[in-house]
Amino acid sequence: TFTLAIVGRPNVGKSTLFNRLVGRKLALVDDQPGVTRDLREGQAKLGPLRFTVIDSAGLEEATDDSLQGRMRRLTERAVEQADICLFMIDARQGVTPTDQIFADILRRKNAHVILAANKAEGRAGESGWLEAFSLGLGEPIRMSGEHGEGMEDLLSTLMPLADAFAARDAETAEEAPETDVDLGWSGEETEDDEDEPAEDWRPTEKRPLQIAVVGRPNAGKSTLINRILGEERLLTGPEAGITRDAISIPTSWEGTPVRIFDTAGMRKRAKVQDKLEKLSVSDGLRAVRFAEVVVVLLDVDIPFEQQDLRIADLAEREGRAVVIAVNKWDLATDREARLQALKEAFERLLPQLRGAPLVTVSAITGRGLDRLHEAVVKAHEVWNRRVSTAQLNRWLMGMTEAHPPPAPGGRRIKMRYMTQVKTRPPAFVVMTSLPEEVPASYERYLVNGLRSAFDLNGTPIRLMLRDRS
Ligand code: GDP
C-alpha cells in the first residue's frame, strides 16, 4: 500500500476531498490517540484501492502571522511522509502566487506529484484548469471534491502507481534494502555501492519492461503494437470495455519480456463508447505514467506536430526514458536528406530530449523493428544506470577545471563533490557553495557533460545543487 498526502494552500478544498476519501466514520480521526492535530491521517477507499491519506488541512485554522512558515513546514512534513502528493489548486481562482510557492516546495522535494484543479464542476473551472498546466507539474486532474467529480480520473491516475507500490512492498519484504542515501563523503574514494536505494524499488529483471507507444492518431501505433505482438490481439470488441488488463498487454519482444500500454486501443474502444473526449485528455498522461520507456511514434509525413511535442515533453518531465520512432519509413523518398532534416528538427524542437535515440521504422513491413527493440532496451538500461561516486568526482574535477564556475560578485563558487542519489531516471546531487548563484548555463554544461561522459542517452537526467560551503 502507499501514502497519499493532500497538499495545497488553505481553502482549496483539501479537507473535503480527505473526508470523501476516508468516509464519514473516520472523519473523527482527530479524536484518536497519536494523531497530531495538524496532520490528519486516515484510511482511504477509492474504487478497489485502499491507501493511507494525509491531510494538511489543520492549517486552515491557523491565524497567526507565521502562517506561511508553518504552512511550509507542515507541507514539507506531509511530503516526507508520503509516497505521492496530491497538490490541489482552486480552479475557480486559477494559479495564485501562494500556489507557486507550494509548487516550488514540491519540486524542490522531488515529490511524485498529482496535480488537481478542484472546484472545477461545471464550466466554472475551465480556465483555472488550463492555467494549472503552467505549473509544470504535468496534466491537472479536473475535479470537484464537493460533488465527487473527477474521482475516476484520480483513480485511473493512482492505479498504475498503486501497482508499482505493491510491487515495491513485495520487494522490500523480500530484500529489505537500505533506506538511507548517504550523502556524507569523507574525501576518500568510496566503494561503488551496488545496493539500490529504497526509491529504486521497481526491479529490472523480474518485471517486464513497461513500454508505452504514444503519438497522434494514425501514426501507426496499433499497427506497430500488432507487429510486436505478432497477432491481432489489440482489436478486441467494444464489449471488452476499458479495463486495465485490456490496455496493458504482456508479451515477449525478441526475447525481452515487455508490457505494452495500448493507447491506440483505448481510443478505439473509447470511440465506440463515446468517451473520446474524456479519454484524450488523460490517456497520454496515463500511458506515460505507466511506462518505463515511452516510444513516441511519429508519422514520417507529419513529424513533430504539436501533439507529438507535448507528449514527448511530458515524458521527459515525468522522468521516463524516451525513444523517438519515425514510422512509415517505407513511404519516404530521398531518405538520407529526410533523416538529416528529421534529426535537425528533433534537436531544435525538443532540446530537452537531447541524446534520445531516433530510429526509422515501418510498422507495416516490420523493417527497423529490430533497431527499435535495441533502442528501447538500451534506453531502459541507461535509465537504470548507476555511476559510482568515485567516477563522478573524478569527472566533476575535470569539468570544473576545464570550465571553472563563475565568481558572482567576486565570490567563488566551489563545487565540492557529487553523488548519484537515484536511478530511473538518474539523479545526481552536487554539493556546492552558493548553489543559488550557479547559472542555468553551467547546470546545462554539467548535464550535457554527464550525458556524454557516461553514455546517458535516452534518459532524462536530474541534477540537484545542494549547499555545502
Ligand atoms: P494509430 O491510430 O496510431 O493506432 O494508427 P493505425 O495503426 O491505425 O494506422 C493508421 C494507418 O496508417 C493505417 O491505415 C495503417 O495501415 C497505416 N500505417 C501504419 N504503419 C504504417 C507503415 O509503416 N507504413 C505505411 N505505409 N502505412 C502505415
Automatic annotation (TrEMBL):
Stretches the record annotates as Disordered: 169-207
EngA-type G domain residues: 2-166, 209-384
Residue sites binding GTP 2 per the record: 215-222, 262-266, 327-330
Domain of life of the native organism: Bacteria
Bias-annotated ranges (Acidic residues): 172-181, 188-198
SUPFAM superfamilies, per the entry: P-loop containing nucleoside triphosphate hydrolases
InterPro entries: G_ENGA, GTP-bd, GTPase_Der, KH_dom-like, KH_dom-like_a/b, P-loop_NTPase, Small_GTP-bd
Repeat as UniProt keyword: yes
Protein keywords: GTP-binding, Nucleotide-binding, Repeat, Ribosome biogenesis
Coiled coil: none
PROSITE patterns per the UniProt record, alphabetical: G_ENGA
Cross-referenced Pfam families: KH_dom-like, MMR_HSR1
Record GO biological process: ribosome biogenesis
Annotated residues for binding of GTP 1: 8-15, 55-59, 118-121
Family of the protein in this entry: Belongs to the TRAFAC class TrmE-Era-EngA-EngB-Septin-like GTPase superfamily. EngA (Der) GTPase family.
Function: GTPase that plays an essential role in the late steps of ribosome biogenesis.
PANTHER family: GTPASE DER
NCBIfam families given in the database record: GTPase_EngA (TIGR03594), small_GTP (TIGR00231)
Complexes and interactors: Associates with the 50S ribosomal subunit.
Protein name: GTPase Der
Organism annotation: Rubellimicrobium rubrum
Underlying gene: der
